[in-house]
Structure formats: C-alpha cells, structure tokens
Amino acid sequence: MESEDQEFLTNLGRHIPDRAGALVWPLISDFSFNLKVTNERVTKHGDYRMPLRKGQPHKISVNATLNSYAFLLTLIHEIAHMHAYEFFGKRIKPHGQEWKQIFATIADPFLAAHIWPEDIEEVLRNYFRNPKASSGADPKLVKVLHKYDDNQDLTVEDIEEGELFLLANRNGRWFKKGAKRRTRYLCKELETGRNFTIHGLAKIVVENE
Cα–Cα distance between 124 and 94 in angstroms, integer? Predict the structure, then answer.
C-alpha cells in the first residue's frame, strides 16, 4: 500500500469503528473517487455523485457529525452507489434492486466481523433484507444508531403531547406536538397555525431549555 493510500485510511479511521478500515479498503481501492467529510446536513447523511465525464472521479460525501457506526453505514451506502454505477451504468434506479443487492452484499463482511455492536447488528440484519433509500426511513435503525451519539439530543417522541419545541438546526420555528400518526406526529406551527407531520425521531429543543 502506497503512503497516500495509508494516509487516506488513517484519516478515514478517525470516523469509522476499529477494524473497519481493512474491510473498506477492498471496496474502494480499484476506483477513482473523492471522499469529502462535510459539515452536518439536515436533509441527508451522505451523498454520491457519478462522474460527469469519462475519466473523472466518483464523488462521495459523508457528514462528519455522525457517530462512527452511522458514518460507516452511510459510507457503505454511498460506496454501493459507486459499485452499481460501475457494474450496471447510469440507467438503473438510484435505489433499485441492483443497488440493494450490492449494498447488502458489500455489508455482509462487516456483519460477519461484528464491526457494529450487537444491538445495531441485530437491526441491520433485518434492514439488509430490503434496504431503504435512506437509513432515516427505518425508525428502528435510526433509534439504535442514535444510542451511540455523543450528544443524546431530545427527539419529538421524547416529549409529551401538547409540549412546545423547536426543530434542531432550523430557523426558530416553534411547534406544538400533536397526535401520533404511525412514525410521525401531527404538529402545529405556532406562528402560522399550519399543521405539519414531523418524524418522531427528529431532533428538537424544548421550550424550557
């Protein structure tokens, strides 16, 4: 392994669990791509951009604020997009069967090596039977990954119906928590009186903080 490659893995190792780097390397060593560890984005944990022209690198980004287990899962998610593009071309659906099969296949060695803690691994084994376009679409997965965050933020489901809250990372919009609808809650924005459905695991700041 060349020094630049070793430096890349050393830097990546700051964001992923121990022993994961050795399993990530075979998935990326044959490809030309740029990895960017970026500031937190509210709408997504990671991103993949295919090459615009032949010879250009793939581009992958992952949020720096993710804990190491969520970071690894997001990284593998985006690497699966890169593999799907290389093997099947750009005409496939972004999160279609080709991507799902590749995602589950390349994740298998990580599960076999027990890189994730037992509680996360248990949820992931079910998740990989039919991976979703976003890990945030699976409430059980979001909840078990959230347990390993450095900052245990409050979520909508942590507070009582009728309590007021601000959505974290949003611009000062106050809401009143309402009734539950499956994984979301019907919440009223105080300023406008409009109702919004907000995911139960959305991070919030409560009124008395």
Answer: 20
